[in-house]
């Protein structure tokens, strides 16, 4: 299914047309979830897209996703622009792609954009659980993630947009039952 894209004229509009019935059908569609799951599993870095004062900002992050793909986690020092921007606006996107493994094969490059809301995770039990997930994927980040100067952010995923062959866009919305 190809998704119709509209130009946003005001900040209250949705960027993508959304038919609730269509979303629920796609949420159970293994044909959409499978390539998303593959990219999430195979790639270890994403571009985190945030905004501040009306300006876009991108930053590279090491990430981990929950098994159900409904949440992602990443770490950042509390002294960074990334941290400040996330504190000001919780609307984020994570862009994950496989272009580095497809040199010379442009039509085989795939990307997924996971949109959602970020939330700072306070130190405690929940922090420890998300930290373990991130560290299990990136063992070299253990001391960084455990440092007092590091913050963990969880992204509650609203939707995934998978792009193949530069123009085939499919949407998948993770649910508790997908």
Descriptive overview:
The protein is of the alpha+beta class and 178 residues long. It has one domain (20-169): Pnp Oxidase, Chain A. Helices cover 26% and strands 37% of the residues. The chain has helices at residues 20-27, 30-42, 81-88, 125-137, 142-146; strands at residues 45-52, 55-65, 71-77, 91-97, 110-121, 150-164, 168-172. Strands 1-2-3-6-5-4 form a 6-stranded antiparallel beta barrel. The two termini are 18 Å apart.
Strand content: 35-45%
Helical residue percent band:
25-40%
List the secondary-structure elements in sequence, H or E. HHEEEHEEHHEE
Question: Largest sheet, described in full?
Answer: 6 strands, antiparallel, barrel
The H-level CATH homologous superfamily, spelled out, is Electron Transport, Fmn-binding Protein, Chain A
Rg (CA only): 16 Å
The whole-number mean of residue pLDDT values reads: 85
Number of individual domains: 1
Structure class: alpha+beta
Number of helices: 5
CATH architecture: Roll
Count of β-strands? 7
- Here the CATH topology equals Pnp Oxidase, Chain A
